[in-house]
TrEMBL record:
This is MarR family transcriptional regulator. The keyword Secreted does not apply. InterPro entries: HTH_MarR-typ, MarR/SlyA-like, Tscrpt_reg_MarR-type_CS, WH-like_DNA-bd_sf, WH_DNA-bd_sf. Residues 14-147 form the HTH marR-type domain. PANTHER family: HTH-TYPE TRANSCRIPTIONAL REPRESSOR YETL, TRANSCRIPTIONAL REGULATOR, MARR FAMILY. The keyword Transcription applies. Keywords: DNA-binding, Transcription, Transcription regulation. GO terms for molecular function: DNA binding; DNA-binding transcription factor activity. One of its GO terms (biological process) is response to stress.
């Protein structure tokens, strides 16, 4: 156990930085999730609706899975409650009947229009702890990390 404790507590700077970023991200996600929970909503489902909206309101489930980082079978499980609630609807792809398309409904758009401003305010308040130059620097650093990850 002593060996493992040394291994998990004495981290190289790169590893320490990585886990600091993970911890900060988890804390910020927690702020957002707390907001969604208070609204009686599920943050993961809202994120799916947002990604569909970013895609112009219609997306293939496989593309949605890639955007949110889940497997294709998992995205189907996650989409079911959204369809049951009337926030999305699925239909056959017009060019390839084997594929399904997911579309944001008017009810889904209404939900996003009503709920996102409050969430964005909560997130902005927390992120406001950083100055504008710090946020721009953080964005540039994240972009650099993403480039090297590809």
């Amino acid at each position: 156990m002593k060996e493992i404790q040394r291994y998990v507590t004495l981290q190289p700077l790169e590893v320490e930085t990585f886990f600091a970023m993970v911890d900060a991200t988890a804390a910020l996600i927690g702020v957002s999730e707390k907001y969604w929970h208070a609204q009686g909503l599920n943050g993961a489902r809202i994120r799916m609706l947002v990604e569909i909206a970013k895609a112009g309101g219609v997306i293939l489930p496989s593309d949605l899975a890639a955007r949110i980082g889940v497997t294709k079978p998992n995205v189907s499980v996650l989409l079911a409650p959204l369809e049951e609630a009337g926030y999305i609807q699925s239909s056959s792809h017009p060019e390839d009947g084997r594929k399904r398309r997911i579309a944001l409904t008017a009810e889904g758009e209404r939900l996003l229009f009503e709920a996102l401003p409050g969430n964005r305010a909560v997130v902005s308040e927390r992120m406001g702890r950083l100055s504008e130059p710090e946020m721009r620097q953080l964005l540039a650093l994240f972009a650099k990390l993403r480039e090297e990850a590809d």
